[in-house]
Amino acid sequence: MKFDLNALDRRIAALMQRWGTAALQVSLAVIFVWFGILKPFGLSPAEPLVKPTVAWLPLFSPDTWLAVIGWWEVAIGVTFLFRQTVRLAIAMLALQMVGTFMPLVLLPDVTFQAGRIPYAPTMEGQYIIKNLLIISAALVVGGTVRQRTRPAADG
């Protein structure tokens, strides 16, 4: 029996095509719920970065803003779980990402290595910049909202 690498490649590609977007959607939900829920409970490693970034904002203290941002992220995650609310998730994500990238501008001494702005991020800077991948994943998921749901497979 001859091994058909091409057939195996087609099967793997079909599997990735069938489940890839759903995996992205669930991954976005998990990341936002998990990382978001840590903030209101004072357990987020991002807290030392978030608080100085929001310190200038009116209405609330940095601690309160941290909790608001955390619950906002939880809401983003939950809305990514349901096809009907993906558009809302992406809109909320777009607003959240504006704030997420602010430390690159407001706290360059924290987000870039000394004397190496803007090309050598610190660990904190890398943490922020990786959000480009989250934005891209959201775009992929968002690109499916007008597709019909797949009919059940033939038995």
Supply the key terms.
155 residues; 68% helix; mainly alpha; 7 helices; globular
What does the model show?
By secondary structure, the protein is mainly alpha-helical. The protein has one domain. Helices cover about 70% and strands about 0% of the residues. The two termini are about 30 Å apart. It has 7 helices and no strands.
Describe the secondary-structure layout:
Elements: H1 5-38, H2 47-54, H3 62-80, H4 86-106, H5 108-111, H6 123-129, H7 131-142
Brief account:
With 155 residues, the chain is an all-alpha fold. The protein has seven helices and no strands.
Number of helices: 7
**Based on the structure, what is the oligomeric state of the protein chains?**
single chain
Task: Give the end-to-end Cα distance, rounded to a whole number of Å.
Answer: 29 Å
**Nearest-integer average pLDDT:** 93
Structural class: mainly alpha
The string of secondary-structure elements, in order, is HHHHHHH
How many β strands by DSSP? 0
Number of domains: 1
Low-confidence spans: pLDDT under 50, at least 5 residues? none
Q: Label the overall shape.
A: globular
Rg of Cα set: 20 Å
Major β-sheet, in short? none
What percentage of the residues does DSSP assign to strands (E)? under 5%
The portion of residues assigned to helices is 55-70%
